[in-house]
């Protein structure tokens, strides 16, 4: 009996290939996949607030304040492109109600300014420049509108909002993301937004666009404006358990291992303290951005970094400098995957060892469409890396082929010690599109990635080990994998806190 089945297996395995494993629901849609692959987007907060030194404009600023003397959207797009941001999202209308395009439904727009004698269109210019550079376009249309007089009248305002949405989604070519939030001032007029009508309209007019909000439907707010996702971050979610404007932070940050909707998280954060440009504010450092990258893109999310153009209509030199630093850091750390030096093997291979479609080596190929798959019904799932020479590293990168569903629940990384024993150096929960783990630097000849728990057979599309010489990973707790701030920085902020406390108490 045993002999017969081996015989049959050999015949069948050499004759016909085993098909790929069955995907596990929920799965991403095509626009959601395209969104996830874009990894980083640049947010552009721009409008009258840029000129009035405000964050939430009252809606009563004179339109003439909007006077960018050197507005150049090609510069914005180039800054995005040169620094690895593959989409830009513009505040076409912020809460003040001012429209950066000449809407037919209001005069509170670029039409009423002296910029280009009232014949300009920021949305149109950006759409054109982005398309030319191969950068994707996203638009933010604030539901809360502090200028429009019909705001507060449910039917009228929903008509107004959908009229404007239609303008934005029919005049400017392909739009890849529509961004809306539940922000609303206290004591603001009570009214209902017809979200379901809006979402249907958006999907009709731009079938390739994802809709962002606190509750999806396509991508969810991560729940904080610090740009951090949780260590555990599922793209699975229940939209019905979330409301726009009433976010449960923990649920949004972690997602839901039992969620029936695919709604990955987007981490929005500003390079400066405010969302709009203010003369006296300074940007974060390149290292700060690297830390944000680890905690957003490195936790299965998209990083939406706000870089606000200044009142000249240009992205400030200081911000550009910091973005270049960030790009340089990433390129030094990630350009060299040490795993390429290793001999790779899996604890088992779907279709047998000779089926290259599921071979362990596939994890060195970039992208999500080639992957390692273990044989069915295994009790353990391990990938081994043997290095001919000692390698030194402190960063692990793991990716899942998310078009097949998000599967891995828990995993850990072991290294081979000098006396031939396995030693655990890092562990994590959830992988998803892209997972980065930091841990104190190790030196070894061999390592293994062990999948401890998975919703279905785990699949791995990319595996990398890198050396980050900039982040002090020696003070990172590997049981927690949250990178802490650099020691000098912590000391400095301790001194600052002390000083601040002392100043406060003496006045
Ligand atoms: C706009 O910026 C781009 C890129 O920085 C530059 O090449 C171009 O000359 C600028 N255009 C104007 C009119 O200044
Ligand atoms: C704006 O209008 C003024 C007077 O109508 C004209 O002199 C000027 O050339 C115009 N500027 C632009 C940029 O069209
Ligand atoms: C999400 O929905 C699933 C059923 O589809 C359910 O099992 C799960 O408990 C829900 N999550 C929460 C947080 O209620
Ligand atoms: C805006 O940034 C540009 C650099 O891109 C700079 O030349 C200009 O002076 C800045 N404008 C203001 C008002 O700071
Ligand atoms: C697998 O491939 C190797 C070398 O390519 C070959 O020698 C071996 O016979 C193959 N085994 C099977 C079962 O096809």
TrEMBL record:
Fetch the Gene3D superfamilies from UniProt.
Answer: Galactose-binding domain-like, Glycosidases
Asked if the keyword Zinc belongs to this entry, the reply reads no
Q: Which terms are listed as keywords in the entry?
A: Apoplast, Glycoprotein, Glycosidase, Hydrolase, Secreted, Signal
What's this protein's name? alpha-L-fucosidase
Q: Glycoside hydrolase family 29 N-terminal domain: which residues?
A: 64-326
An example Gene Ontology molecular-function term: alpha-L-fucosidase activity
The signal peptide annotation in the UniProt record is 1-15
Q: Report the subcellular localization.
A: Secreted, Extracellular space, Apoplast
Q: Which domain of life is it from?
A: Eukaryota
């Amino acid at each position: 009996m045993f002999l017969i089945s081996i015989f049959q297996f050999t015949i069948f395995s050499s004759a016909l290939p085993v098909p790929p494993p069955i995907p596990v629901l929920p799965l991403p849609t095509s626009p959601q996949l395209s969104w996830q692959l874009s990894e980083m987007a640049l947010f552009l907060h721009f409008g009258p607030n840029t000129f009035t030194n405000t964050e939430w404009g009252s809606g009563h600023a004179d339109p003439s304040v909007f006077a960018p003397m050197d507005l150049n959207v090609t510069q914005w797009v180039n800054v995005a492109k040169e620094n690895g941001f593959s989409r830009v999202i513009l505040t076409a209308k912020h809460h003040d109600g001012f429209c950066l395009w000449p809407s037919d439904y209001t005069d509170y727009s670029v039409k009423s300014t002296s910029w280009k004698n009232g014949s300009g269109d920021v949305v149109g210019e950006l759409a054109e420049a982005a398309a030319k550079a191969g950068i994707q376009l996203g638009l933010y249309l604030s539901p809360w509108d502090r200028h429009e007089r019909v705001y507060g009248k449910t039917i009228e305002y929903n008509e107004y909002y959908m009229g404007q949405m239609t303008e934005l989604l029919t005049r400017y070519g392909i739009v890849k993301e529509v961004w809306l939030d539940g922000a609303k001032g206290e004591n603001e007029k009570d009214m209902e937004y017809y979200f379901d009508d809006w979402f249907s309209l958006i999907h009709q007019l731009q079938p390739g666009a994802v809709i962002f909000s606190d509750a999806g439907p396509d991508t969810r707010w991560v729940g904080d404006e610090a740009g951090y996702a949780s260590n555990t971050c599922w793209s699975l979610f229940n939209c019905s358990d979330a409301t726009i404007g009433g976010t449960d932070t923990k649920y949004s940050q972690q997602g839901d291992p039992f969620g029936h909707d695919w709604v990955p998280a987007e981490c929005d954060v500003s390079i400066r303290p405010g969302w709009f440009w203010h003369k006296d504010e300074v940007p974060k450092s390149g290292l700060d951005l690297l830390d944000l990258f680890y905690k957003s893109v490195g936790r299965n999310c998209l990083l939406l970094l706000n870089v606000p153009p200044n009142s000249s209509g240009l992205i400030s030199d200081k911000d550009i400098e910091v973005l270049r630093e960030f790009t340089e850091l990433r390129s030094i750390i990630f350009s060299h995957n040490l795993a390429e030096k290793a001999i790779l093997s899996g604890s088992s291979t779907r279709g047998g060892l000779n089926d290259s479609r599921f071979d362990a080596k596939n994890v060195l190929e970039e992208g999500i469409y080639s992957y390692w798959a273990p044989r069915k019904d295994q009790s353990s799932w391990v990938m081994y890396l043997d290095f001919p020479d000692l390698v030194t590293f402190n960063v692990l990168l793991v990716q899942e082929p998310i078009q097949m569903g998000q599967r891995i629940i828990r995993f850990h990384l072991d290294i081979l010690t000098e006396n031939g024993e396995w030693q655990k150096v890092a562990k994590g929960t959830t992988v998803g599109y892209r997972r980065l783990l930091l841990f104190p630097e190790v030196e070894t000849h061999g390592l293994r990635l062990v999948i401890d728990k998975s919703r279905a057979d785990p699949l791995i599309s990319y595996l990398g080990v890198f050396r980050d010489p900039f982040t002090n990973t020696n003070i990172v707790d590997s049981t927690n994998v949250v990178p802490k701030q650099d020691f000098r920085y912590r000391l400095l902020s301790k001194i600052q806190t002390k000083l601040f406390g002392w100043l406060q108490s003496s006045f």
